[in-house]
Design a protein that fits this description.
Elements (H helix, E strand, L loop, with lengths): L2 H8 L5 H30 L1 H22 L12 H10 L11 H5 L2 H31 L4 H33 L1 H25 L3 H15 L3 H12 L3 H30 L4 H16 L14
Helix pairs in contact: 1-2, 1-10, 2-3, 2-7, 2-10, 6-7, 6-9, 6-11, 6-12, 7-8, 7-9, 7-10, 8-9, 8-12, 10-11
């Protein structure tokens, strides 16, 4: 089951952003710990044993989750009837039926804006996934230890950004409504990330470039849980389908930046030019939030 469906079923609408923030912050903490824990483990035991050990942990976690988790709050023995009623009153999903024609989804202009926003968003995300270590070492002349430290710092700040973004969005939603609550964090976070990508490309100080890029992740990830919260807002009982469409567009962005970064560097011998392109993509992604309306669902009303 996709996490967005879990959140749609298990959380009241006003807590969706916070729930998404915890999930994504946990993922970012995993990214922060990976260079610090896994690289030494690979040096000690070899990559095969490390791979097997991590895989075994995943299997143990999956078995535990399967044994404990229930799709509906009412089926979970550990929560009270009062809490179940509070969840069901406040959540947007009202039915376990997830059937919706794809043409209904793709005729929705807000979803197209959401998909394009995520597509451009992932240009920034996949820089850190696939190119940041190469950028730091070959583009900025850093050592392996310096690179490891800046990557860990980036992911740690990303976890902080996820937590702040989700909590802030829910707080703004309670005070000013869903539209402002989601848009303000999306516009602000991606706009700031665009600025710091630009500064990272312009600075001649290698250490400052590393800190600017770490701040990029902090700012960018303010919008990450909010984007997935919007999938629940507009998808409701079809949040999984909406999330899948948005994430598909985002992964295409990750595919393109992985190729384009290498092409630009190969043609120009300059590792900073791709950062300027990413800054532009994030600026457009920021402005697209002004077109996304989380108050308009794409579901067919029963």
């Amino acid at each position: 089951m996709h996490p967005s469906i879990v959140i749609a079923r298990w959380f009241p609408a006003v807590e969706v952003g916070r729930a998404q923030s915890v999930i994504w912050a946990a993922g970012r903490l995993g990214g922060a710990l990976t260079p610090l824990l896994v690289i030494p483990l690979v040096h000690f035991a070899g990559w095969r044993w490390t791979f097997a050990g991590l895989g075994l942990l995943g299997v143990v976690w999956a078995i535990g989750w399967y044994a404990w988790f229930r799709d509906e709050p009412a089926a979970q023995e550990s929560i009270s009837l009062e809490e179940v009623r509070e969840i069901e009153r406040g959540r947007k999903i009202k039915s376990s039926d997830h059937l919706i024609p794809w043409k209904t989804i793709f005729r929705n202009p807000d979803l197209w804006a959401l998909m394009l926003m995520c597509h451009l968003f992932f240009y920034g995300s996949y820089f850190f996934t696939n190119w940041s270590s190469v950028y730091f070492q070959e583009g900025r002349g850093m050592t392996e230890d310096q690179t490891k430290n800046f990557i860990s710092l980036s992911y740690f700040l990303g976890a902080v950004g996820c937590l702040i973004g989700g909590i802030l969005s829910d707080a703004l939603t309670k005070r000013y409504g869903l539209k402002i609550g989601r848009r303000a964090v999306g516009v602000g976070g991606l706009g700031l990330s665009s600025l710091f990508f630009l500064l990272a490309g312009l600075t001649t100080d290698n250490q400052m470039a590393g800190y600017y890029l770490a701040i990029c992740v902090l700012a960018k990830d303010l919008a990450l849980p909010v984007a997935f919260a919007v999938c629940v807002d507009i998808g409701q009982r079809n949040a999984g389908s909406v999330t899948g469409a948005m994430n598909f567009a985002g992964q295409l962005g990750g595919f393109f930046i992985t190729i384009l970064f290498g092409i630009i560097v190969e043609q120009t011998s300059n590792f900073n030019y791709p950062l300027f392109m990413i800054a532009g993509c994030l600026l457009v992604s920021s402005l697209l939030w002004l077109r996304i309306d989380p108050t308009k669902p794409v579901t067919i009303q029963a």
